[in-house]
Design a protein that fits this description.
single chain; alpha+beta; four-stranded antiparallel beta sheet; 4 strands; 47% helix
Length: 248
């Protein structure tokens, strides 16, 4: 459990920031349900499907940075987001993060700009170490960034950039696959993360720690990172995820 890589929070920030609405947005092509209390007769005019939003012309894949930066910057004024937007090849970074998170893996290698500046610390006796609750504060900014996002705005951004995001995803060894399914898998994994209250025992030393509980250690890297962020942060992100799912 190498703490220099904030695995799941990066997946949460990057995947949820832009692609969080992918799976549920693709389910909204059905006609809206008429929930009026009056009886519907054959003479009623049919309910039209909502008009699709006009497609925004997108630049080529290699020229997406200039298009993405102002679009994503409008979602949050948090410095964590600004730091990432200052890097290059954003659309491929997003696609790579989605690909990794969709299998429970770590996209952290490519997102070091978002890593906490201080290491994980532990407390307790030498024979029974637990994660120091003070370590959880390292993720305050990133969790605040994610949970402050407006779900509707996230969905609009996703719909706008999806063609290029899908193109980037397919070019990364995923020909014929759809980014929507990858996002669905990533969200399913994140939403299946347990919340652990109380002290979390770890074993190891230095910068590498494992969960003492075998059930926790067998979770995916993204789920384990969520746990290492602390119960309050884990719960806040899971609540936000579920709210986004319900909104979409």
């Amino acid at each position: 459990m190498n703490d220099t890589r904030p695995i799941a929070i990066i997946a949460a920030l990057i995947v949820l920031l832009v692609a969080g609405g992918a799976w549920w947005m693709t389910r909204r092509s059905e006609a809206p349900v008429n929930d009026s209390p009056r009886a519907v007769t054959a003479t009623d005019a049919p309910i039209d499907k909502p008009a699709q939003e006009p497609q925004v012309p997108l630049p080529p894949l290699d020229e997406m940075d200039g298009f993405l930066r102002p679009l994503l910057a409008a979602l949050s004024s948090r410095p964590e987001l600004a730091n990432w937007l200052a890097t290059d090849d954003l659309i491929r970074q997003l696609a790579a993060a989605i690909a990794q998170a969709s299998v429970g893996g770590s996209p952290a290698r490519d997102f070091k700009v978002l890593a906490p500046t201080t290491p994980l610390t532990t407390a307790g006796r030498a024979t029974e170490r637990t994660i120091d609750p003070a370590s959880y504060r390292r993720y305050n900014g990133l969790v605040t960034t994610v949970t402050s996002m407006d779900a509707a705005a996230v969905a609009r951004v996703y719909r706008t950039i999806r063609p290029r995001l899908n193109e980037a995803y397919q070019s990364m060894g995923n020909p014929g696959r759809d980014v929507d399914n990858a996002v669905r898998n990533a969200l399913d994994i994140l939403l299946d993360t347990p919340i652990v209250k109380g002290p979390v025992r770890v074993v190891g030393s230095g910068a590498t720690w494992d969960f003492a509980d075998e059930d926790l250690e067998e979770l995916t890297p993204t789920q384990k990172q969520l746990l290492r962020m602390g119960p309050a942060h884990t719960e806040a992100l899971l609540v936000w995820l579920r709210a986004l799912k319900n909104a979409l």
